[in-house]
Amino acid sequence: MLSSYLGSVIEYYDFLLYATASALVFNKVFFSSLDPLAGTVASLGTFTTGYLARPLGGIVFGHFGDRLGRKRMLVVTMVLMGAASTLIGLLPTYDGIGVWAPILLVLLRVLQGVAVGGEWGGAVLMSAEHATSRRGLWAGFTNAGAPSGMVVSTLVLTLSASITTEDQFLAWGWRVPFLLSVLLLALGLFVRLKVEETPVFAEASGSRAAEAPPLLQVLRRHPRNLLLAVGVGFGAFVAQATLTTFLISYAVDAGFPRQTVLNALTLSSALGAVAIVGYSALSDRIGRRPVVLAGAVGMAVVAFPLFPMVDSGSAALLTLAVVLGQAVMHPAMFGPLAALYSEMFGTRTRYTGASLGYQISATGAGFAPVLFASMTGASGGGTLGVSLLIALSCAVTVLCVLVTRESHRADLAGEPEDSPAAPARSTAAEGTAG
Fold this sequence. Notes:
This protein is mostly helical and about 425 residues long. It has helices at about 1-25, 25-30, 35-70, 70-90, 95, 100-130, 135-160, 165-175, 175-180, 180-190, 200-205, 215-220, 225-255, 260-285, 290-310, 315-335, 335-340, 350-380, 385-400. About 80% of the residues lie in helices and about 0% in strands. Mean pLDDT is about 85; it is low at about 420-434.
């Protein structure tokens, strides 16, 4: 659990650090030749490329993770992410090398996306396949790594901003958090290299015969579960991108000091990490579906007062809006996904199936900030359309959860069925519900 959690923290520290920097800094240092609105859209566009690359990472690392083992792939993804993030910290700006600056930035962001696309599935399975009970709780720690990484990245970015002037921060201060990735990489590898391969995979690989590649097996045997996995996570990812990227940029443009916005994000991320673990544990007791459904409905409702609370100009209401979204509603949608996705696929295709479903779903988070920024710009600042789209994405999650099989008592050594919602079969692993 510690290896999965710490690895997830480090991966998402790097991945989400880019998200915050793209909302606050990159439009000024990599797209300085554009007007402010166009620069913001372009900056958020580079943020999107990382999400588009995540399914590729899921396919590549999922294939080898299902064939060679979870542990080996997790070491590779961590090194790839650390190297890409460090190079971003060393990248010259537009004023230094012109158009090559944003081009190289996009390439490094793609590498980040490939790395995190392979990381999540392996980290979840390291916890889920080792768990003998309370699978939702232990796997949920991997998902808690995302807001934990956000806390660390925001704190480091905040510290860097607080000890520099505005000019110094734009010149070199923003680079410090990216360069610190080297230290986090060393710590993560120290822990991860000591972890054994999962017993579920070890048992399955011992009897492996010649068979089709994992991706083809997923597409042939579990196409319905793959589509449902994409839909189940869609609302959570749109909400996540709205709360951690677009809303941050929106609040700064509305006149809030950058530090006030970062403080709200830090608080909500810290509370969100705790809530993810709590909701994941609850899903062991009452099932994955009720928890995710409650979160999706709640997030759809919160989407409408979210922007008016920011427009109020009150720092307290801004903080409350972010906390309601990121620490109350979103964790219920997001926390149980770690265990739920691992339960939707068999051992020999689990890394590929879970990763691909999760990462295709995550593309919603990549497109949302760019789309929302363009919508508010075209409407002169209106946000009702944005709230409607968030609610619609949550409705997609609700519909998919309703037709997804409840699986919190399933045996991971068994083979799941692509079937409509129904009570899960009784297995010898009944105790996994805690």
